[in-house]
């Protein structure tokens, strides 16, 4: 199959299409009235909502921390440290979300394909960083409720259970934080945790970034 | 440009380039319903960007960039798509004969192109559209040397596939 033959085939395809394609002018006019609709708008809206909810959640935790500090006792250390750790993780995730919103603003489909796709792919793949950060705060959800009454009346069984749950959460969250990376995207556990359709497109974006990098190195 | 003049210029640009839009959508999307959606999204993004069109580029360069960017992003989304990008259900580009009489060789070429990775597919479409290396490099944002190497590699890959089928 020679070059000319490939191009001739394509040119014939072009001629056939020229005869058989027609525009639906009514629909085109309809599209021209929809200037506000964009493919990235829902994504941007979701991220802005996430930022607002994240800020509200962090503020609530900080208020509770202030209240706990105003009448500080030894046993409240568990709540204060846990709440501050969760707030730190949430604020870090908010910063990544704000960066993503800024990146969405910069995306322009009329720029060259590699540049635009790199921005889009990095936007999608940074979503995994948010998940990693939030996983890291998981063990603190198992410690914030430890209080005076648990120390005074808690049985050995309760403390064994508490210690087991916290240890498991800590080990799993650190492990996920360290391993939820692009190079592990094909592993079974990764697909199990990030197997939904939203994550499938994130994984495709991560692979696509690898492809773009390989392209530019050649 | 006044609004109605802008509308008319846009209509004529789409009229002139409808074949390109269809071919790109067809190369990235085999499912008829998804292809219809992709064409709508391409046309919508073209319209959205039309007001900011930079006349230092040809209309075709601007159009290829947007169409390929939208098609590649669309392709990356989950294949089992349930969400639709708009409430419009009809086709913007209507194909007169639903079964295009394309011939077995062209069908093979289309199949082989649709099996290529996203960027290789874009390069091959532009090459077959007789774009110069410089224009392909400009549309994709790669160097001309890179494009030349890639084209030669993809052509070899396609030739091998054709010869395997024929033997």
UniProtKB/TrEMBL annotation, chain A:
Transmembrane segments annotated in the record for this chain: 48-72, 78-99, 120-144, 156-177
Transmembrane helix listed as a keyword: yes
Transmembrane helix is among the record's keywords: yes
Keywords: Membrane, Transmembrane, Transmembrane helix
Name of the protein in its database record: Uncharacterized protein
Species the sequence originates in: Chitinophaga filiformis
Automatic annotation (TrEMBL), chain B:
UniProt keyword Lipoprotein present: no
Entry-linked Pfam families: Sigma70_r2, Sigma70_r4_2
BP GO terms, sorted: DNA-templated transcription initiation
Alphabetic keyword roster: Sigma factor, Transcription, Transcription regulation
Keyword Membrane in record: no
Domain RNA polymerase sigma factor 70 region 4 type stretches: 107-158
Domain RNA polymerase sigma-70 region span(s) in chain numbering: 14-80
Stretches assigned to coiled coil: none
Family (UniProt): Belongs to the sigma-70 factor family. ECF subfamily.
Name of the molecule in the record: RNA polymerase sigma-70 factor, ECF subfamily
Native source organism of the sequence: Chitinophaga filiformis (Myxococcus filiformis)
Phylogenetic placement of the source organism: Bacteria, Pseudomonadati, Bacteroidota, Chitinophagia, Chitinophagales
